[in-house]
Amino acid sequence: MTAVHKACACLVDAQDRLLVFFHPGDLGMQLPKGTVEADESPQDAARRELLEESGIDFTGETEPLGTLERDCEAGVEGNAHRHAQLWHLFLMRAAQGLPETFDHIASGSPEEDGLVFSFRWLAADQPLDGFTLPYRQVVERVRVALDRSAQNARATL
Prior knowledge:
Elements: E1 4-12, E2 18-23, E3 28-30, E4 33-35, H1 42-54, E5 62-72, E6 83-93, E7 101-105, E8 116-122, H2 133-155
Parallel strand pairs: 1-6
Antiparallel strand pairs: 1-4, 2-3, 2-8, 5-6, 7-8
């Protein structure tokens, strides 16, 4: 089975909180993520998905966090058929302050056009209530990367 490539934008603020949102169609918490188009790199797709789903035009550096393999069942999260996915994860650090919470009307895909996504920041000590397994795995990977970065910063002092 050929995997559908997805790109996931893991945007963190100056307090190392992760930007997450409630998806009203799937009734759960998510991170900005979507399909990599034929003419773009996974990194460019992550930037595009962040813009389409949150309205944030991120132009800074990204840090690849690897990939996550997922087997999607038919009838789950709007999937018409069973298929494999390969999620490409990118850590992004917001250069400017952003609101604590905000809503954004999604664009860019027929399934999500017009949906209102409600965004908030997820701190490292907050539980992962409302996230499905793949999103929990992404959040854990981000938390490990942030911990490693903080440890490296302390070691250089």
